[in-house]
Every structure is written in structure tokens, then in C-alpha cells.
Write a structure and sequence with these properties.
By secondary structure, the protein is mainly alpha-helical. The protein has a domain of 257 residues. 74% of the residues lie in helices and 4% in strands. Strand 3 and strand 4 form a beta hairpin. The longest helix is centred in the first third of the chain and has 34 residues. The radius of gyration is 24 Å and the shape is globular. The termini are far apart. The model has no long low-confidence stretch (mean pLDDT 92). The structure holds zinc ion.
């Protein structure tokens, strides 16, 4: 067996393994949740009714079924793109139409993006207007839905085309070490996006108004002072126009750092609970989790570009993945499509790391605000978001970025 056959075979073997693994875990989780549908866990009996618990189980079950369907569609799409030759044909078409490698690259990427967008549209519509609607979470109108889509499309074009142009230019004109420059460019671009996102992009989709609740504001400012945290303002985002799911987050860094509360979270939590949730978020910040994650992503993209740089040299890489001719843009696209097959086994490692961060942030919150307020806030959020309290333990270990409700609350009680 030559190198091409080896990698082609590996492609199919990994695709089968990954699919079995994902379907199995998904189904396992659904079964586990449904088998616990009639019993609210002891610790939650006072705060969560049987009806609410059952709603969460049904919501998980419906979402699991839907996610198996979208996984199936994803597998078919990958088979159509690569083994069945859609991507290779797209490349032939680009070569017959356009002269330069960069214009072909922009064309192929553009078509790939548009086809995926159209294929993904029914899934997004179903998830928003059927599933989320059924469980009372959806607040979007079709007008808002399509308005968002058009804005995202225009934004992707304005940002994506120049970005891709420069990236392809780097690959085609900077010699053997292009991947180092490409990586540096990518990292610079990432940082720029983090800097401009809160002030230029997010406001295109949501209104951000300064937090006006006087009592809450003074509580929060006390907490910020106590923990020595500086930010560029407290904002409330009108998340309720799209969904009733609640959240709070930080964006930006350095001077552009700001704290954002979804209006939905302010409706469902009391001021001490909001304070506890914010203290948890501050914990992430104080423990430098954001920077650690950023460093991880910078390093992994270096590894990624090194691999693309290496593969790009050999036509075998393209041929093994059903592409007949070598090009810069195909190297990037192939890497995007094929690399998840090689990296899915890393998912649990990232989840473990993230859960460790959550415990650290919880400990910080317990120290600087009140563990009991955080517990009641979490219970409230689980209830409001219809998140299951009883996920399958194995599923949770692999995928969940947050510890399961029971363990998290047990930990908070121990503090
Ligand atoms: Zn957290």
C-alpha cells in the first residue's frame, strides 16, 4: 500500500470511528436522562419541581435526537465534498474560469461557504423555530432571523475576503517558511478581532446599555473594588430579543475589557445571585483562564500551520483526500475538513481542563462573594435553561466544559 492509499484508508477508518463514538455517546446520554426523568435528584427537590425536571429531560432528548440527525447530515456532506468529488469539481470549475491562484482560492472558498450556509439553513430554522419554540425559549421573529443572517453574510465578506486574500498571498509568495508568517498573521488577526468585537461588531446585533439598576450597580462596584478588577464598564445586552437563555460574560482585554450581562439573567436572578455569578466570572479572569486558553489556541494554530506547511509540499496529501491538483487554498480547505478526524480524541482533554477552570472560578466566587448565592443562582439557571441535572457521566466527562450540576454544587457546599 502506498502513502496515498494509507491516508485514504485512514480517512475512512477515522471517520467511522469518530461517528460511532459520537453517536454512541449521544444516545447513551439521551437514555440516561430519560431513565432519570421521574426523579428529581435529592439536592434539588426543594427548588426544582418534577414538572421542571421532566421538561429538562424532554428538552435534552429532543436536542439529542436532532443532534444525531445533524451529525448524520455532516457525515454525508463530508463524503459528498471529498470522496464523491464535489470539492475537486469545484476546483476544476475555478481553474477553467479564473487565471490566478488567489482569485481561484477566493472563488472556491466563497462557494464552499455559501453551499454550507444553504445546507445548514434548514437545520438552523428547525432548531430555532421548532425546538427552541416548543420549549418556550425562542424569541426570534423570522424577520430578525434573516436580518441577522444578512448582517453575518455582509460581515463575513467584509472581514473574510481581505483576510483570505492576505493569507493566500502569504502562502503563494513567501517561500518554504510561509507557514510561520501565515501563523503570525492569523494570530495578529485573532487579537485584532478580540479588540474590535465588543465595540464594533457586537453592537451590530445587540443593544448594549449601561447597567442602570442602582442597587445592583453598587453591589457590583464593591465586588470589583474588593477584587481589584478594572473594567471599561458594565453593560446590559438585550439578549431577550432572540432567546430567553441567560448568561453573563466578559469581552475584550486591556482597556477594552467590559462586563456584559444578558437582560435575561437580570430578570431571573436576585442582585446577590448576580453578584455571585459575576464573582465566578472574575475568578476566571483572576486565574488568567482567558489568557491560558488564548495561549493554547495560539500554540495549536502554530502546530496546525506547521502541519499544513508540511502537507502542502506533497501532492500525495491532496490525492489521498480526493483532490487532483495542488493549491494553497485547497491545502487550507482540506486541513479544515480532515483535521477534526485526527483531533476528536482530544475533546475530553479540553473538557477536563475547562472543568478544572470552572472549579477554580467557583472557589474564587465562594471566597469573594457567597457560595450559597452562587448555588441558588446555578439552580435557577439550570431551571430557566431547562439544563438536565442528570447527564450521562461518560458523556459529561467527554463533552461538558462545566462540571455536572450535582458535583458542582457539592463542591460549592464543601467550601
Ligand atoms: Zn465559568
Amino acid at each position: 500500500m502506498g502513502i496515498i492509499q494509507i491516508f485514504t484508508t485512514l480517512f475512512f477508518i477515522l471517520l467511522i470511528l469518530k461517528s460511532i463514538f459520537e453517536f454512541y455517546l449521544n444516545k447513551r446520554n439521551e437514555n440516561y436522562v430519560l431513565s432519570h426523568i421521574n426523579n428529581v435528584p435529592e439536592d434539588f427537590k426543594n427548588n426544582i419541581s418534577l414538572e421542571e425536571h421532566q421538561k429538562a429531560a424532554k428538552y435534552t432528548s429532543v436536542k439529542s435526537k436532532f443532534s444525531r440527525l445533524t451529525m448524520g447530515i455532516g457525515i454525508v456532506a463530508l463524503l459528498v465534498w471529498l470522496p464523491l468529488g464535489l470539492l475537486d469539481n469545484l476546483d476544476f470549475w475555478a481553474r477553467s474560469l479564473l487565471e490566478t491562484e488567489i482569485s481561484r482560492g477566493l472563488f472556491v472558498f466563497g462557494m464552499f461557504f455559501l453551499i454550507n450556509l444553504i445546507l445548514g439553513l434548514p437545520q438552523k430554522l428547525y432548531s430555532t423555530f421548532v425546538i427552541e419554540e416548543k420549549f418556550g425559549f425562542n424569541k426570534m421573529t423570522p424577520k430578525l432571523f434573516f436580518g441577522d443572517m444578512i448582517k453575518q453574510l455582509v460581515l463575513s465578506a467584509i472581514i473574510g475576503i481581505p483576510f483570505l486574500y492576505v493569507l493566500l498571498k502569504i502562502i503563494t509568495s513567501l517561500g518554504d517558511l510561509w507557514w510561520v508568517y501565515a501563523w503570525a498573521f492569523m494570530v495578529g488577526f485573532q487579537f485584532l478581532m478580540i479588540l474590535i468585537y465588543p465595540t464594533f461588531i457586537a453592537p451590530l446585533f445587540n443593544k448594549f446599555s449601561p447597567l442602570s439598576d442602582v442597587e445592583l450597580k453598587s453591589t457590583i462596584e464593591k465586588l470589583l473594588k474588593k477584587t481589584g478588577f478594572e473594567s471599561n464598564g458594565l453593560f446590559v445586552m438585550d439578549a431577550s430579543k432572540r432567546s430567553s437563555h441567560g448568561n453573563a460574560y466578559f469581552t475584550g482585554f486591556g482597556k477594552s475589557k467590559r462586563i456584559v450581562f444578558f437582560d435575561t439573567i437580570l430578570k431571573s436572578l436576585t442582585p446577590p445571585q448576580v453578584e455571585a455569578v459575576l464573582a465566578h466570572e472574575l475568578g476566571h479572569f483572576k486565574h488568567k483562564h482567558i489568557y491560558k486558553m488564548l495561549a493554547m489556541s495560539v500554540l495549536s494554530s502554530l502546530v496546525g500551520f506547521f502541519i499544513i506547511g508540511y502537507c502542502y509540499k506533497s501532492i500525495d496529501f491532496f490525492n489521498a483526500h480526493f483532490i487532483s491538483q495542488k493549491s494553497s487554498y485547497m491545502a487550507l480547505l482540506l486541513f479544515t475538513l480532515v483535521s477534526p478526524l485526527y483531533t476528536f480524541f482530544l475533546t475530553p482533554i479540553f473538557s477536563i481542563m475547562s472543568r478544572k477552570h470552572e472549579y477554580e472560578a467557583d472557589a474564587f466566587a465562594a471566597k469573594h462573594s457567597n457560595a450559597n448565592d452562587l448555588i441558588t443562582a446555578l439552580v435557577n439557571l439550570y431551571k430557566e435553561n431547562a439544563s438536565t441535572l442528570t447527564p450521562d457521566p461518560l458523556f459529561s466527562k467527554v463533552y461538558h466544559s462545566h462540571p455536572p450540576a450535582l458535583e458542582r454544587i457539592k463542591f460549592l457546599k464543601s467550601l
